[in-house]
Amino acid sequence: MFAPRVGKVVEMGLKVAVIGQSAFGAEVFNELKKRGHEIVGVFTVPDAKGREDPLATAAKADNLQVFKFPRWKALKKDGGHTLPEVEQQFKSVGADLSVLAFVTQFIPVDLLDSNKYGGIIYHPSILPRHRGASAINWTLMEGDKKAGLTVFWADDGLDTGPILLTRETDVEPDDTVNSLYKRFLFPEGVKAVGDAVDLIAAGEAPRIVQPTEGATYDPLWKDPVKARIDFDKTGQQIHDFIRGNDRVPGAWAVVNGQETTLYGSTRTPSGGIPTDGKPVEIEGSKHPGFVTGQGLVLTGSDGEKLLVTSVKVGGKSLPAADLLGESSNEGGGKKEAPKVDEAAARAAIEAVWKDILGVETVSSDTDFFAQGAGSLDATRLVENLQSSVGLVIDPEDIYRAPTYGDFVKTVLKTKSSAAEYKTVKVRANGLELSLPVQHFIGGRFVDGSEGKTRPTINPATEEVIVDVADGSAADVDGAVTSAKDAFENGEWRKISARDRGKLLMKLADLMEQNKEELATIESLDSGAVYTLAVKTHVGMSVDTFRYFAGLADKIEGRTIPINDSRPSKNLCFTRREPIGVVGLIVPWNYPLMMVAWKAAACLAAGNTLVLKPAEVTPLTALKFAELTLKAGFPPGVVNVVLGAGSVVGNAITDHPSIRKVGFTGSTPVGKMIMGGAAKTLKKVSLELGGKSPLIVFADADFDRAVRQAGQAVFFNKGENCIAAGRVFVESSVHDKFVEAVVSDVRKMKIGDPLDRTTVHGPQNHKAHFDKLVAYIETAVKEGATVVYGGKRVGTRGFFLEPTVITGVEDGTVAATEESFGPIMLISKFETLDEVLKRANATEYGLASGVFTKDLNKALKVADGLQAGTVYVNTYNKTDVAAPFGGWKQSGFGKDLGQEALDEYLRTKAVTVEYW
Ligand code: NAP
After folding, report:
1. % of the chain residues with pLDDT over 90
2. What are the pLDDT digits (tens) for 510-554?
3. Is 771 marked as binding a ligand?
4. Which of 595, 724, 810, 913 is the most buried (most CB within 10 A)?
5. CA–CA distance from 408 to each of 79, 353, 378, 387 (Å)?
6. Quick check: 231 pLDDT over 60?
7. What are the binding positions for (6R)-10-formyltetrahydrofolate in this chain (predicted)?
8. Given this model, what pLDDT does residue 775 score?
9. Rounded to an integer, what distance in angstroms lies between the CA atom of residue 662 and that of residue 611?
10. What is the pLDDT of residue 9?
11. How far is the CA of 686 from the centre of ligand 1 (A)?
């Protein structure tokens, strides 16, 4: 006896054909069977990417024949009639009733009507309101107080057939499309379809004609362009819009200049909506937004606020609180995940993925959602991992890292690395600094293979700041493996150039948000005067990342008119492609800025990198790595290995999988790099030393020339590659010039670099300080005169007086070798031709300058100087948009400007024949 739950008792269940797909179709199938109906046929969609639909799987388990029609009707252009083979197969199952469980295909009604009872359809709204395929979105976007579902009889219209039954629920204040579906429309929908079939079986199913009043037909809602938030709406309307778009297509706004998709809006967070936080700019809104540890607060036109808890920027989902750019790795209220065995966790992740996706194998690029999984599967994944191995993961992780490889790295990294890496706390400059101290490889901070460390010293106090990892060739190899994997298999190559630019922009924003910390660390580690560190060391680094972020999607090839192979035609075009894994080796004078000058162009071009900072200044490179982690760079894109040039630098130069080395440093080491790179035929770019001449003519604006010459030599304690290594002054103003310079130098305040009134800090490290003292002694031995300075200041710290030396003979060591310190060498000259010759009498050719009011003279000198940069009536005017690099033995290849991108790209010519 068949006993339906609804209606009277009848003899037999119905013979039902189930048409549909997805988990919902499978649950309806099971529900109807459970209620005693006989499923006589299942009609679902063809397999996608070799994976069958869950409804097909459920039916196969019952040995039922499954029909997978790509379409039921012929295309309109072919007559639009029901396909005969479909008709024949559909009728062959002999169903009394067809049940359409969330069907995506167009099913001919005349075919359904050939069943005894016709067909019934599930629809996720209370009809006649919200007809159409995006009913749930519209229910929320329209601010409906009730949501619901309808089972109706199929007819010729779109969602217009007579109603059989409806079910409804209150819309909760923070319901989203997802939550409404999961908590009500899916489970109650399955039951409602069961009830509807029971009513038909019992002969009690009504056919209530849909009223015309209140009917709406709402357009399909999946176009992200339309999902932009209108801030002229009230707070409640914006909240409704965000949740009505959550998660697809995702409502978005421009936050701090970046397109940002917003999820998880709430107007009722526990503890209420925060009233203050770090301001962010919201384009189109009269009210600025602000970010707190709870998320992003937005305000509607009526002043009503809402809190957004999750965002997606540059293709990556993040907690909205991360818009602060300073989410702590130190617990910060985050729940500690229980410890789990990593090997067991890996095995469990693999097993659960295979089970959910119904596949035999998973590889690092298997995409959870592209393989057909939905949000319910994501929930299953989370719950399954927790119950099987106790792995507690953030449900958002699967959206942040939808491919298998990235998911494993994200989940295990969250547990074992990103959340737990070692940092040392140091108080300085009124801040508590948090210093990472390990290598950064594959998105994790790790100890080196040999476990060695070395101290890094504060040059102002000669005290150890912290011990950091000291790497080996094996560490370089590990970093290269990660970088290669990220380049060849990771997300990095898959994201668009524009998204790459957005990530770089995000990194720049994070650097700016953390500029006080970065500048303080730079000051401690390199002796940079804090005010200069903020403006130049960090400020220009931020600008560099912003500049190259903007160029990322402007890397273009050309079309080339080659000869056609007649009678065929040919198309030839070039693509500008990244090179692969790039090794970057940088010096200590501007530790972070040198990283930025190279890394920004390298990453904008799409490469992955292994960076070696100078062994005496490793700290801001590690902070940079930390910020790439926070910005959401995929693991392995940025790697940092600390250690000596002779070990780590050498291993980078020699590594066969590194295809290019970008080097900044001294000319002798540059030559070694070039020789080493020849062994594996790597591309190299070399930014090397200089002995830049600065020529002051008697007709120059004297005060300006004196001031600028001082800056040209003493800027950043003279540890400046373009520092004017020799100042040539026309003899008629020479003595006056020397006097004026000395008068200025006397006023320079030397001392603690963190003191805001200091202009001259300590030299970078002891070996360099000793070298400078020896250089001054050599100049004196060679017959030159120290007219000011030349001595150590105090007994603690590597402080050297700014030094002015005259009477340097051409051809001496002092006249030809780079000092790289605060030492001004002033020489007399008589004529333009003579000074040009003397200025060029060096193997260096980095920068140069000329001061004169005579335009002809200025241009003639600019023409004649053999250097990559010539400044006229100015000096040190370096800009991110202008190419920078040397001539002669100052190297080749440019940093900065559009030309820098060429250093990190290779050209592929593609030739196509067509006819
Ligand atoms: P450096 O001694 O040449 O060192 C530069 C980098 O190369 C450091 O990271 C160093 O590691 C590494 N290195 C040393 N030996 C190596 C090897 N055998 N193989 C691979 N890498 C090796 O230069 P520096 O003293 O740090 O910097 C000062 C020089 O840089 C000056 O000549 C200056 O003019 C030049 N510079 C040029 C520019 C430019 O744009 N043209 C800009 C800034 C500075 P360690 O840390 O272990 O020594």
Report:
1. 75
2. 999 999 999 999 999 999 999 999 999 999 999 999 999 999 999
3. yes
4. 724
5. 50, 11, 14, 17
6. yes
7. 105-107, 159
8. 98
9. 9
10. 43
11. 10
- Atom from ligand 1 closest to the CA of residue 895: 40
Ligand 1 centroid–CA 817 distance in Å is 15
Domains 15-202 and 347-417 share a fold: no
Q: How far apart are CA 439 and CA 477, in angstroms?
A: 12
Boundaries of every domain in the chain: 15-202, 224-321, 347-417, 423-685, 693-885
CATH class of the domain at 423-685:
alpha beta
Look up 687 and say whether it is catalytic.
yes
Q: Give the closest residue to 411 by CA, choosing from 376, 386, 380, 374.
A: 386
**Which one of 721, 734, 760, 768 is the catalytic residue?**
721
On whether the 693-885 domain is CATH 3.40.50.300, my answer is: no
Quick one: average pLDDT of 273-300? 89
Provide the pLDDT for residue 678. 97
What pTM did the predictor assign? 0.62
The one catalytic residue among 27, 31, 52, 123: 123
Active site residue 87: no
Q: Looking at residue 333, what is its pLDDT?
A: 33
Measure 712 CA to ligand 1 centroid, in angstroms: 21
Determine the residue type at 263: Y
User: Does 665 appear as a known binding residue?
Assistant: yes
How far is the C-alpha of 503 from the C-alpha of 604, rounded, in Å?
A: 9
Q: Which CATH superfamily includes the segment(s) 347-417? A: ACP-like (1.10.1200.10)
CATH superfamily, with its number, for domain 15-202: Formyl transferase, N-terminal domain (3.40.50.170)
Q: What is the pLDDT of residues 307-317, one digit of tens each?
A: 998 888 876 77
Give the C-alpha separation, 532 to 178, whole Å: 51
Ligand 1 cavity residues, CB under 6 Å: 585-589, 612, 614-615, 644-646, 649-650, 653, 664-666, 669, 672-673, 687-690, 721, 818, 820, 846, 886, 891
* Residue type (1 letter), 72: W
Mean pLDDT, range 652-665, rounded to an integer:
98
pLDDT digits (tens, 9 = 90+) for 66-82: 999 989 998 888 888 99
Catalytic, 602? Answer: no
